[in-house]
């Protein structure tokens, strides 16, 4: 039986720990990396889920190359949706949509962007 385990990681430590914190307020990066290493030791395939936020959106190449360096062969990227905004319309594009598209295009041909879909090329 094969499994594909999803791991949430938002980039290198300084980007990941910005928002991913434990209840005690500590960054979770070290625990996530330890979990990835454990999965690898048992040869369990994993994918990474990266939330693109107002910080890591400015570092697309760093995030992509970091994820490759930790062995991610399957990457998912989702946009952080802001909460607390009255009457927000989730059917359209947020003001960050174009920054998100730039995030993918900045990877110099590693990504091909289609309307509402992103397909990995490399």
UniProtKB/TrEMBL annotation:
Q: Name one GO molecular function term.
A: oxidoreductase activity
Co-factor(s) = [4Fe-4S] cluster
Q: Which SUPFAM superfamilies match?
A: Radical SAM enzymes (SSF102114)
The protein in question is named: Putative arylsulfatase-activating protein
Source organism of the structure = Escherichia coli
């Amino acid at each position: 039986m094969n499994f594909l385990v999803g791991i949430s990681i938002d980039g290198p430590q300084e980007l990941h720990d910005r928002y991913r914190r434990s209840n005690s307020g500590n960054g979770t990066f070290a625990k996530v990396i330890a979990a990835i290493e454990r999965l690898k030791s048992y040869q369990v395939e994993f994918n990474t889920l990266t939330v693109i936020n107002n910080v890591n959106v400015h570092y697309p190449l760093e995030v992509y190359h970091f994820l490759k360096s930790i062995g991610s062969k399957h990457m998912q990227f989702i946009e952080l949706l802001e909460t607390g905004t009255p009457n927000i319309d989730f059917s359209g594009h947020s003001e960050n949509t174009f920054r998100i598209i730039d995030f993918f295009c900045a990877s110099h041909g590693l990504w091909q962007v289609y309307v509402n879909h992103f397909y990995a090329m490399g």
